[in-house]
Amino acid sequence: MKILIRILLLSWCSLCAALAVNAAEQPNIVILLADDMTWSDCEPYGSPNVKTPNMQALAEQGMRFDGMFTATAMCAPTRQQLYTGLFPIRSGAFPNHSKVRKGVKSIVHHLGELGYEVSLEGKQHFGPKESFPFKSRNLAKTLKNTEGPFCHIVASSDPHKPWSTGDAKVYDPEKIIVPPNLIDTPHTRRQLCKYYAEISHLDKKLGGIMESLAKAKVADNTILIFTSEQGMTLPFGGKWTCYDTGLKTSFIVRWPGVVKPGSSNNALVQYVDVVPTLVTIAGGDPSQIDTGCANADGKRGFDGRSFLPVLKGDTKIFRKFVYGAQTTRGIFNGKDYPIRSARDDNYLYIRNLNHEGVFSNAYVLGGAYYKDFYQPLAAAAETSSKIKKRLKFFQHRPQEELYDVRKDPYSLNNLAGSPELAEVQTRLAKELDSWMRQQKDKGLETEKTAPHRKGRMK
């Protein structure tokens, strides 16, 4: 009887808490998620090439994050960590075209329990369905239902390959500035113009969202987030790597009355921190949530935590380290070439677990990616020793890499093995080991299980 009374009291307390949350003023949440867009390819982050007036306007109205990272530079793992608050190997969604483990919960469950309707339009790339039970509808339909708070995600396919939307004629191949990490050829320049056109097309989509929120008179009570996902698909553009061009993401938040307009911060933050932050904003306690999946210590909470103090401008310090885990298996024609990384404010440490192997996927083994991206560079390498050397590095990387990201943001000068940085390299290597252990990541042994994690919506 005592147990029954205790259960009833707990249930009553939970109900009272829920009612209190629902009675409070909860902001709506709208997220625009790009697809394969390098973080720096927009006006707010200083691009000399891309025209993105709406992204610039959003940054002027809100806060620009300069230290936001995803943990994996490919679509399915990135989206699923953003929606679950869990790093990819722990959740099970670490190869591309993957699914989380049975029982894992997502933003749909966590915000739904706090009274939110959670919907999504556009690209999915997650599974199984029971872990991501989004309502499928567009923003216009969501705005017609304003009885309670809502969270709506617009998951765009821009600027993912093929680059067929937008007007590439707006950009002149001869006048654009090619980032130093890319191989500068006439073909690369033409491809970049197509890619930039898709980003401009995406920017118009953001403008439409901003206009819709204003017309519906909900903009003042809506948190609007734009984020770029991971790096783009040209060789060394970032996708499928653990360099900053792959894992770093643009992240801009507008929250009228709370976030200072035109502000920015350098705090290290990861995608796994987004859901705990939104839960906190919605009135919940992320520390009390069971994510449906335990880490190596048996804990079932989020891998992330709330960065609400950063949003409020109370601090510009959050994480000491951010992490990366790239699995080549799962990419079309992908072979074993797993990569792990740990990064602090100053240095990026990368470990190539199968450095004696050869990085190989659809880039170099034929098909559309090979024809559009790699084959023209391979042809140019026949008459250029510089390009030949760069392409060799693309497929053959050392066991360890270390970069001073303040001085070398494009990771062009590998400092691993430098005596003067031995302490830094050792410290980051130990930090990576600790994170891998906590995530149940056994390196090459874990990579062998990647094929079992593939299979969306099953």
TrEMBL record:
Residues 436-458 are annotated as: Disordered. Residues 1-23 form the signal peptide. Residues 436-450 have a biased composition (Basic and acidic residues). Transmembrane segments: none annotated. Residues 27-132, 140-283 form the Sulfatase N-terminal domain. Keywords: Signal. It comes from the Bacteria. Coiled coil: none annotated. This is N-sulfoglucosamine sulfohydrolase.
